[in-house]
Write a structure and sequence with these properties.
By secondary structure, this protein is mainly alpha-helical. It has helices spanning about 1-15, 15-25, 40-60, 70-80, 95-115; strands at about 60, 65-70. The two termini are about 65 Å apart.
């Protein structure tokens, strides 16, 4: 998408924007619009921060599960602070068996009624 935009701009404006991206020099610019100070220190700081962040992401990527453990320490800390509650049993075994029997009886009643009418 980006390359298509660059090609479209270059064809429409005829200003050689692709070469400007490579060498940083754009032709036919008034002196008042030229950047006087490029601040290489800020650029190096930014490149360093991007490198550190990329290294952090690469180190926390689990290739087996194809997941990214981003800010794992913060998430684990939040989980350990909350007290764990035991899950309540909503249905007992006898309640489940009773439900199964009711469903079975209903199914057999329907099938018997269907078979008797055919």
């Amino acid at each position: 998408m980006h390359i298509a935009g660059v090609v479209l701009h270059a064809l429409r404006h005829r200003d050689g924007i692709a070469m400007t991206m490579i060498d940083g020099e754009k032709k036919d610019i008034p002196v008042a619009e030229v950047i006087s100070n490029s601040r290489p220190g800020v650029a190096l700081l930014f490149v360093g921060l991007v490198f550190i962040f990329a290294t952090y992401l690469a180190g926390n990527f689990d290739s087996l599960n194809r997941t990214l453990n981003f800010l794992v320490q913060a998430c684990n800390w939040a989980k350990t602070k909350k007290p764990k509650k035991k899950a309540k049993k909503v249905f007992s075994e006898s309640m489940i068996q009773t439900k199964k029997m009711k469903v079975w009886k209903m199914a057999t009643t329907i099938s018997e009624g269907f078979c008797a009418t055919t």
